[in-house]
Specification:
339 residues; alpha+beta; three-stranded antiparallel beta sheet; two-stranded antiparallel ribbon; 15% helix; elongated
Amino acid sequence: MNTNKVLLLAVMSTLTVSCATQRTAGGLVDTNNQYATSNNVTAPPSAKPGECYVNLHTKPVTEQTSQQVLKRAASQKIEIVPASYATGEETVLIKPAGTRLEVVPAVYEPAEEQVLVKPVGKRLVPVDAVFEDKSEQVLVTAASTYWKRSTVAEASNSGAKEQIAGDDGYVMCLIEKPAVYKAVTKRVMVTGPSSREEVIPAEYTTVRKTVLKTPATTREVAVPAEYAKVKTTKLVSPAAEKITEIPAEYETVTSTKTVSADKWEWRRILCATNSTPAKLQEIESALLAAGQNPGTVDGVVDSNTLSALQAYQASKGLPVDHGRYINIDTVKSLGVAPQ
């Protein structure tokens, strides 16, 4: 069985329903007779039958207050900050920019030139006579006529000129005898001898030489400025007065004041007779509804139940029982009837 549970049951068993008791250094007090023990502890006032109480020693409650006490007033610290200088390099103009004239030399290039050696001329060229062979018919025998005696029929057939002579009826035909020619070939001069004028072309020779392409000129050339680097020392910040505010110093003084002195007080708790499994199940269910975790709702007070009770008491500002008992204020806060 859980140690806390055993302790709880042990405490509850000593707190009977018919009486309220007080655990003290000198023994127990019978609340029914309301008499004091050797240390003069009295029974709970106005106790009713069936109620159980536990007598607790409350330590004195003190309250600490702190306040700031001036230790040293605010002041000023004045310091002279010396001037600061920086050494560096500076570019200085030595010679300003200007111009100068520059000669641009002439440009030459090789070239070829045709040079006249002999000009165009003329000359007479003889032209021979032109002959050609021609054929012509030369008369050998001139044409002539002669009479030929024939019959009328022959005459009519030959087409000769007829002339009828005599009485015997013969016919005398005048027959034309053609001229006789022969072909004769001879050279005939077509064109007589002459002369013609012929042009004699000029004669040239190739001469290689160097010719001027671009004549010499002048141009203006910009001369850049000349600079030099010199070492310089420049003032970065002048001397100044530095005022430092020194804040006031405070110290915390803590004082303790007693709010309530130590005392013994009676606290009503759940009696053993009322802490039935059913009542404990009510308490566990109420803890669960309040957002605490009492473990299994079984009517058994174990470490989970006690942890849930303490967490609930702390969250509600109730007296914390530290696992020894269940005070009635907590039972009422959970909405559970004490009896």
